[in-house]
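Objective 1.3, modelling of assemblies. Example input:
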Amino acid sequence: MDKPEKILVTALKLFVTYGFHGTPTSKIASEAGVSNGTLFHYFKTKDELVVALYTSIKEELNQFLVTQINTASTIKEKFSRLFVGSVEWALSNGDAFYFIQQFRFSPHLNLISEEESRRQSEIHTQLLLEAWTANLLKPLPVNLIATLIASQISGIHQYLVDKTVSPDEQRKLIDDVFELTWATVANPETR
Amino acid sequence: MDKPEKILVTALKLFVTYGFHGTPTSKIASEAGVSNGTLFHYFKTKDELVVALYTSIKEELNQFLVTQINTASTIKEKFSRLFVGSVEWALSNGDAFYFIQQFRFSPHLNLISEEESRRQSEIHTQLLLEAWTANLLKPLPVNLIATLIASQISGIHQYLVDKTVSPDEQRKLIDDVFELTWATVANPETR
Amino acid sequence: MDKPEKILVTALKLFVTYGFHGTPTSKIASEAGVSNGTLFHYFKTKDELVVALYTSIKEELNQFLVTQINTASTIKEKFSRLFVGSVEWALSNGDAFYFIQQFRFSPHLNLISEEESRRQSEIHTQLLLEAWTANLLKPLPVNLIATLIASQISGIHQYLVDKTVSPDEQRKLIDDVFELTWATVANPETR
Amino acid sequence: MDKPEKILVTALKLFVTYGFHGTPTSKIASEAGVSNGTLFHYFKTKDELVVALYTSIKEELNQFLVTQINTASTIKEKFSRLFVGSVEWALSNGDAFYFIQQFRFSPHLNLISEEESRRQSEIHTQLLLEAWTANLLKPLPVNLIATLIASQISGIHQYLVDKTVSPDEQRKLIDDVFELTWATVANPETR
DNA sequence: GATGAATGAGCATTCATTCAT
DNA sequence: GATGAATGAATGCTCATTCAT
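Predicted structure (tokens):
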């Protein structure tokens, strides 16, 4: 792992525990095993580090989701993969997922450009467009459907984080909730 | 409005715009029209101010929801009132709602005691218990149901914040989503 | 002496010895017997402190020169008082005088507004105008005359700083150089 | 232009604009088109670079003045050439001249050895000695005369920098001021 | 000679908190 | 209760300098 990567990994761990403000750059540097100066060699400011971390996490998540979707044939199956994949990724990358929320409710969000923002949600946009074109969705605003699905993902994730459930049960619950969600948003006629 | 109240109101506005860290107590004080010392007269530390703000907002929200629920007769109607009320309160108290999220994804959350936490969600717990007892819910874990409903509330709110919709349409959308949500979690047999 | 004044006095001493850069604000504060925070309470930035010091020194010098000029009756005598007064002030306020030069050949000079600059040289401007109106000066550009006089002041000062001369001799030398300078710039006809 | 020379040229430009402190070595290096390490290959420390720049400028100035003086036959003419040459060099090497002042009022001055200092003013010392021996000067301390001449040089330069004057007028003004200065310091009997 | 990544000491500045009035 | 001057610990960031390649 090269130095900037090591810095990002360490920053994630510390930000999640102590918050942005509660984490001095000096602590990030020393725990990452580099000097303070090196941190600023790679990230011009602390804010830039925070943003870079967010971007890299989103990137990683997206790449994971793409591999998930690619294993599916039907559109519904793609949704399922996206849904299940998101929840499972969130469960096994607790820190990263928590950080995303943290970031979203902070002034740092404004530092993300429109374009970067669009790029990050491209997969979801594409898939929804596909479903919409195939007339698979209820006659509701597409954005509303997107938001409702996203909410259910974060809902079931939230539930599973608090409980301790066996992997099998967990998988079943996620599938069940996906089916419920799909029933909520899918067009009953073409379903 | 007395001084501590003025301080809380000002703090909310600033926290939402600049974040906790980005808002010095001195700025809160000056914008609230009180002296630096006065702020610390009412709130021993900045953290205490943050927590007090959170608690007071939750308190206000809960009181509002209680009045909403009280106008309902059936259990489903209570759920509806809770659902719609939550979304509408969130829409007309954007700052407060945003602050709640901000707070939840920050280390400050640890400063809320278990008991306080329980008290804040009492209404929801009560209502779910009622529904459960009346056998109105699907055979899913009650907590999962609670989380799913909460997610949908925040989902529809999220959607409405971004769009600009007429009040009538807005109301209709919220009702629609509630019906979808209710269909998702309610026991079809006793519904 | 109040705190901001004490800070200025200490800063002068240190700047002259170690330069602006070579003098940390922390050293100024501690030698002035105040806390680091107090320094920044009175001067928002280090640059502001530097500028404030410059302005206060120029102010003091000007007030001194005004009292000198006021004891003179003829215009030539006023020039003499200004000349002699400037040299003597420079000799007994070595640090302050050195600081002025230091400041003038630094980027800080740009932080002085046009207006402030004009105000600082008002005495000289006035006196030259008076002499010009009375036709006492050679037909040379007034600004050139001003600059030449100023140069001679700094010349004789420079000389006296390096040598050690008895007060009497010193006074005589300054007078001599003034007469030479006056002969250089004064109109021989009306002299 | 070889690398160390390029570094010196760039450093001059930047020092004059931003001051010593305001100019990082990294900026000098990058603007000079060399790497950070190369700068330190040629100049062990930043201070050494500053001193080297000063020395090289003084050297250049002196060489120029020597060629000027060599075209003169009488002593007064030599003084004239020195005077005029100095002003003209200062005018066409504004940055270099400004840097000299900057350097003189900075702690770096202490890094110049006595001997180096003497060498730099040798021309002036020699010429004054010649004039003194020939009994051409007023019965004033030689050092005072030296200082007064130097002051007038910097005075007329100062004036010409601020104004915009045609080359012819400029040359005439410089000559005039030289004559005035010469009249001030030269022995009227042997003149 | 040339490079530029890495270092870490050093500094300006901020800000929560105190306390005398 | 109210004030705001004073504090000083804490921190982001800079930059001269080193050194392995």
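The CA atoms of residues 59 and 174 of chain A lie 23 Å apart.
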